[in-house]
Amino acid sequence: MAIERSVTVYDGPDGPFEGMAVADTDWDAPRPGVMVVPNVLGTKEADFQTAERVVGLGYAAFVADLYGQGNRATREDDDPARFMNDLNADRALLRDRLHASLAAMQALDSVDAERLAAIGFCFGGKSVLDLARSGAEVRGVVSFHGIYDPPPFANADTIPAKILVCHGWDDPLAPPEAVTTLAVELTGAGVDWQIHAYGHTGHAFTDKSAKMPERGLAYQPDADRRSWRAMTDFLGEVLS
Q1: pLDDT (tens digit, 9 = 90+) per residue, 100-114?
Q2: 3-238 — its CATH code?
Q3: Are strands 31-37 and 60-63 parallel, antiparallel or unpaired?
Q4: C-alpha separations of 62 from 118, 138, 142, 235 in Å
């Protein structure tokens, strides 16, 4: 295995954008593509490492940039959520940037354009749900500790993607009533959906740098391991 990263600049609403394509140079044919959508901070090394883990499962990976080239945040910023907040306030723009990112992945030589999926973490988990809601031609999406409120406009009449939601039951940003509301929404839309809830687990449970248990944000190794296993099985099903 020879995993290689490749910076990919692409167009989109208010772009340009800078994503990261990750693939195995030993492959002799395109592989199913998995788009990785980052958390509140935007693209970073942790996301590139996640993409490399996805490649280790046999898929081409692409880390999407939803904020625009050069727009990145750190936990030390005065307002690390500023780029996310702009998109939360304009969900149509978020949708359009997701589609631009998906198209950029679809165009990669390493990607089988007919077999696509997306995974996302925190804000990225919310984003991939919006991608599915929009009717994007992805076979499946996985939301890790996402936020579940729907956009303030109609979803697509048909949502083709299967959906896996990996959720910390004690997540203060997505309380039990939000989970139930999401289940009702997806059921009404006829979606093939799963929700895996992990007990004694809060927000950001896959993020080893999350260390704010007093605010309900903390890494939980068991939930991290179990949710990755669930994702692996799910992608094996939808991308086969």
Answers
A1: 999 999 999 999 999
A2: 3.40.50.1820
A3: parallel
A4: 9, 14, 15, 15
